[in-house]
Amino acid sequence: MPASVKALGQARPSGASMAPQARCCSPAALQRRLPILAWLPDYSLEWLKLDFIAGLSVGLTVIPQALAYAEVAGLPPQYGLYSAFMGCFVYFFLGTSRDVTLGPTAIMSLLVSFYTFHEPAYAVLLAFLSGCIQLAMGFLRLGFLLDFISCPVIKGFTSAATITIGFGQIKNLLGLQGVPRQFFLQVYHTFRNIGDTRVGDAVLGLVCMVLLLVLKLMRDHVPPVHPEMPPGVRLSHGLVWTATTARNALVVSFAALVAYSFEVTGHQPFVLTGQTAQGLPPVRLPPFSVTTANRTISFSELVQDMGAGLAVVPLMGLLESIAVAKSFASQNNYRIDANQELLAIGLTNVLGSFVSSYPVTGSFGRTAVNAQSGVCTPAGGLVTGLDLLPLCVTFMLCFWEVQYGILAGTLLSALMLLHSVARPKMQVSEGPVLVLQPASGLHFPAVEALREATLSRALEALPPRCAVLDCTHVCSIDYTVVLGLQGLLGDFQRHGVTLAFVGLQVPVLRVLLSADLKGAQYFSTLEEAEKYLRQEPGPQPYNASEASVPEHKVALLKA
């Protein structure tokens, strides 16, 4: 994907006020579906130069990464290369981020290893089915569903995956054979067999790690080029920049050259990858059945074998890609379209399956979770700890099985979210008139909690007292909430006291007025309601008749 197309993501549809028939055929709508049309007319030679440098750098980097990711996925190394190129072409036309590249990633490779049993046929079919699911979500505009996967769940999963993948490479670094892939068994057998370490593999691995670190430090400290620099200095600068940028490819080439040198001498102290298939992958349909020596595994059996992977893999692929796209869009001041990203990654996986690719996604980057926490006292640490609860659950269970970690963390986050909806915090002001203010909206599961709080504080007091419900934070209500408020008003009337409403936003006021709640009293401000309930001179309430509603509210109601 070009890395410097500055117009990409900035051209937004401007026909929001057009009729649907005109909007669906407008140039803006076409640009939204084919984002390349937004930036291609303005493409320049300067952009081409920068894109070429960026594309070359990414290409040199992705080759050794793809080989390593295939090993993480438990597949032959060529499958990493097969998975690395289709996303470049699809995202070129359909992507909305100028920075994102699609291809194999560490986390996606780990998931593939869990759900495909290290069998290429399962991996390719999983790419096809994942792409179909992602495409369907894009066409149905279901990108908003990803917002229900909380950051603690994502962080817990990625942290556990980092440890799992990192520790999984120790056996390769030490040249150990026969180590299981399950994490806890892997830890046990690695330490148990550490005495079988191959010196050649360990030395070569450590040297490569040191070289990568040194080249990275050099890259971070290369001074910028100035026009007044002599040509020789600029040439040296360019060589150093190229070497440090392509450090992954250089180190892999160096290690391969060392291994080849020993192979020529007839003495090989290293464990080699072995022969890799040559040439481009054949274009063919994904395997909808697999024939073994004993029988033919049908499509339905393949799907059943992959089980939860058909939900986890496409979901995590979308999360990775959209998370990194949003991160770079925020840093570089442009916008992305989440639903368009679903289409791009879905089509990449579908087409990639025709060239033997396993599921791919955007490279996952760590993002800043909170730009501003808003914590006022050290007691905020308690709140932070509860945010961390899904993270810890996900983190720990991912060492057992990835799907259990993600599922448990998501369910725990959902339960915490549902609890906050069903039992919202309530600000209560005691006095002759009780004032209750839901702090985070009022949804139908919270009606019973509101009723209990009101009854216990207002109607069970001696004597019963009037109450004011401050609806400042309530943006919308549904039929169940209206019924609950109607029952609450009946309770107040039976006790001979009044329940008043203040701070009603227009959508809420419209629903309540149309419901014609008996005994309901509406006020514009809390002061007006308290004066009326204390029987002091002041403005009178407005009721179900629109004629009694303040003029500024009437204008909004009619809008």
From TrEMBL:
It catalyses: hydrogencarbonate(in) + chloride(out) = hydrogencarbonate(out) + chloride(in); sulfate(in) + H(+)(in) = sulfate(out) + H(+)(out); oxalate(in) + chloride(out) = oxalate(out) + chloride(in). The chain crosses the membrane at residues 50-70, 76-94, 123-144, 156-179. GO terms for molecular function: antiporter activity; monoatomic anion transmembrane transporter activity; secondary active sulfate transmembrane transporter activity. It is a multi-pass membrane protein. Signal peptide: none annotated. Gene3D superfamilies: STAS domain (3.30.750.24). It comes from the Eukaryota. Belongs to the SLC26A/SulP transporter (TC 2.A.53) family. Residues 433-517 form the STAS domain. GO terms for cellular component: apical plasma membrane; basolateral plasma membrane; lysosomal membrane. Keywords: Anion exchange, Cell membrane, Ion transport, Lysosome, Membrane, Transmembrane, Transmembrane helix, Transport. It is found in: Apical cell membrane; Basolateral cell membrane; Lysosome membrane. Sodium-independent anion exchanger mediating bicarbonate, chloride, sulfate and oxalate transport. Exhibits sodium-independent sulfate anion transporter activity that may cooperate with SLC26A2 to mediate DIDS-sensitive sulfate uptake into high endothelial venules endothelial cells (HEVEC). In the kidney, mediates chloride-bicarbonate exchange, facilitating V-ATPase-mediated acid secretion. May function as a chloride channel, playing an important role in moderating chloride homeostasis and neuronal activity in the cerebellum. Pfam families: STAS, Sulfate_transp. InterPro entries: S04_transporter_CS (IPR018045), SLC26A/SulP_dom (IPR011547), SLC26A/SulP_fam (IPR001902), STAS_dom (IPR002645), STAS_dom_sf (IPR036513). This is Sodium-independent sulfate anion transporter.
